[in-house]
Amino acid sequence: MNLDKAKKINWDWPRFWEETGNDLQLCKELVELFLVSAKGLIEEMEKALEKGHLSILKEKAHSLKGAAGTIYLEDVRERALRIEREDLPPEQYQKLISEIKVLCNYFADEVQECLSS
């Protein structure tokens, strides 16, 4: 496991590894589940924002926050928490969603290398 890459994306790999009982297969399954669910939640958040449905946006952000927290992906969790809790102008919500997308894409790319080493 390359801890430098985990730190770069603010992923608490050691804690995640410990919480999964050092089970590499379980780690892979949880990460894959996160990536699939995050993609869908982000899409739903974007649609809710477009339609001005802030309660749905915040509900989906709450779900994403929990999913990111489960795998200790702190940068995503923190941004989802901001969307869930703060009253912001639409462009600020969009900025946070865009940042979450970038972080998730970067995580998806980097985690493949981390979990295979």
Structure write-up:
This protein is an all-alpha fold and 117 residues long. The protein has 6 helices and no strands. α4 (54-70) packs antiparallel against α5 and α5 (74-85) runs antiparallel to α6 (90-116). The longest helix has 28 residues, at 24-51. The protein is elongated, with a radius of gyration of 14 Å. The mean pLDDT is 91.
Main beta sheet, described? Answer: none
By CATH, the superfamily comes out as HPT domain
- What radius of gyration results from the CA coordinates? 14 Å
* Percent helix range: over 70%
Number of helices: 6
What characteristics describe this protein?
single chain; 117 residues; mainly alpha; Four Helix Bundle (Hemerythrin (Met), subunit A); 6 helices; elongated
